[in-house]
């Protein structure tokens, strides 16, 4: 059941993002918060949650931040996007590590779609990608690098 919404703003951001919390009773009579996510995200997955009892997501094993791409870089590399995802962490033994992605890479494409923000990538990483190879494109040290990654 969706218990309600709460603002995620803890004083760090100017605008609050509504967060829907999923609350259930699991093995006890005490309600437990099982998941908290942006309200629009929860709405997109409710059907699957009701049918299957869970929502599976694929993962790459990276930490990233949305980063603007300058017009000069976009023109140099023929990019149609104006932002990408700067990789700030790569988990050891992760799909990203196996694909050769590195801290500092600027991820600009995942599969056949532009990866313009962390939110974009998160929306793309549904359960359909688990175990399925995907082409990624990153900008690394002034060069375009393409790799194949197999999300878990």
Structure description:
The chain is α+β, with helices and mostly antiparallel strands. Helix content is 21%, strand content 38%. It has 4 helices and 9 strands. The strands form 2 sheets. Strands 4, 5, 6, 7, 8 and 9 form a 6-stranded antiparallel sheet that branches. A 3-stranded antiparallel sheet has the order 1-2-3. Residues 1-26 and 31-35 have low confidence and may be disordered.
Element-by-element helix/strand order = EEEHEHEHEEHEE
Multimeric status of the protein: single chain
User: What's the number of extended β-strand segments?
Assistant: 9
Beta-strand proportion = 35-45%
Mean pLDDT: 79
Class derived from helix and strand content? alpha+beta
Q: Name the overall outline.
A: globular
Fraction in helix: 10-25%
Low-confidence stretches: 1-26, 31-35
- Counting H and I runs of at least 4 residues, what is the number of helices? 4
Largest β-sheet summary: 6 strands, antiparallel
Taking Cα atoms only, what radius of gyration do you get, to the nearest Å? 18 Å
Distance from N terminus to C terminus (CA atoms, Å) equals: 27 Å
Give the helices and strands, then pairings.
Blueprint: E1 2-7, E2 18-25, E3 31-38, H1 39-52, E4 62-68, H2 71-76, E5 83-90, H3 95-99, E6 106-110, E7 113-114, H4 118-124, E8 134-140, E9 143-149
Antiparallel strand pairs: 1-2, 2-3, 4-5, 5-6, 6-7, 6-8, 8-9
